[in-house]
Amino acid sequence: xxxxxxxxxxxxxxxxxxxxxxxxxxxxxxxxxxxxxxxxxxxxxxxxxxxxxxxxxxxxxxxxxxxxxxxxxxxxxxxxxxxxxxxxxxxxxxxxxxxxxxxxxxxxxxxxxxxxxxxxxxxxxxxxxxxxxxxxxxxxxxxxxxxxxxxxxxxxxxxxxxxxxxxxxxxxxxxxxxxx
Length: 180
Fold this sequence. Notes:
Elements: H1 10-15, H2 37-50, E1 57-65, E2 71-82, E3 88-97, H3 99-153, H4 156-179
Antiparallel strand pairs: 1-2, 2-3
């Protein structure tokens, strides 16, 4: 019950880069990453204080650090073991190395953030293009009305100016579309 390991399987020995017997007798808290030490200790202490039955199980995640300094993200399930007189014998700890899963989750979040930024950029682009393309259309429509009026009035000089403005607006739209 003092936190010392009495049995560690080969998988745990591999994670912590120890020989099969090197973990025996070591305190389980020796391997907790310094940034997670206080939170892990507090979580475990709170669980011990609140346990109602011997079947209570605590689950949590933390970072563990190997002898050679490699950091592993671990998911823990811990259950207490009692003798027939309900005296605490120790704890059975099951740990899963979830480092790869956590890395994949982090990458996924990065991709989601990048995708959101691209979506915002695409919306801004679409708005700009829409606005830029509307300008020549408004010009064309406006001068078509003037063109009709000038044709009805027989004002050839203004008619030619209107045609030139319509042509310039159409050329501007064509250039915008080519640039797209």
